[in-house]
Amino acid sequence: MTMTYFTEGQSVAEVLGRHGPNVDERLAEVFGSLVSHLHAFAKEVVLTESEWEVAISFLTRTGQLCSDQRQEFILLSDVLGLSMLVDAVNHRRPPGATDSTVFGPFHVDGAPVRAMGDDICLDGKGESCLFTGRVLDLAGEPVDGACVDVWSDNADGFYDVQQPDEQPRWNNRGRFLTGPDGRYEFRGIKPTSYPIPDDGPVGQLLGQLGRHPYRPAHVHFLVTAPNHQRLVTHTFVAGDPYLTSDSVFGVKESLVTEYERLDDQEVQWRCHFDFVLAPDDPGPEGALGA
Ligand code: BEZ
Ligand code: FE
Question: Where is coiled-coil annotated (predicted)?
């Protein structure tokens, strides 16, 4: 490409024309598209210098808040709908497989492996709920040796890692390994809706946009099994007022689950959900299915 000077009309070509030889093909594709959309955006809105400064300051504060404990950039991606979009374009599952959703920042590797039926609620707060279901393959056959890794907030709407001095370690977390019948069963609590961390720039942005920071009540699951695709998902509580306005756009209709009221002193609710895993190798037809 002939090198010229930067002009408004030729801005994209000028930037992309500076690439050296042997640039990775995928990098060139992704960066090229990014620059072209970014320039089109700035031209469309006629971005002012003070708006550009606000954006730079916002991104700077977002980065400054990131640490081992906090990932404000992922939170930004979440509230922009980008996390769910990346999930959607990367996990076009075959029909019948359980839908995935956003991973979120509160998973902790290495939760205790518990016995079927165990109670994961260690702080004694909340309404007790029996969670039951099976891990199945696309043919409806039980999956033996699946790991159902579960995590959830407590009755006050906080994960154990957000309150290390108040909640017992591994509160509302555990891993359950299925046998040949594919079944899992544990006790936990009926989860509550809670706000995403909103004391930083992302929370400020939500405020300015007139958006609330709440997520509808949900339980997180990471389901893994040999020869099957890893499934990152939640189940949501039917009837939750935030189902259609989740601050991170994580809700899918197929994941909304009824909680059945039990006539029991000890366990007040039951929630049943079967996870259907897609096979590891989608084969020559690809994973798109439909
Ligand atoms: C969560 O559900 O744990 C979560 C997801 C995205 C952002 C913040 C929290
Ligand atoms: Fe969550």
Answer: none
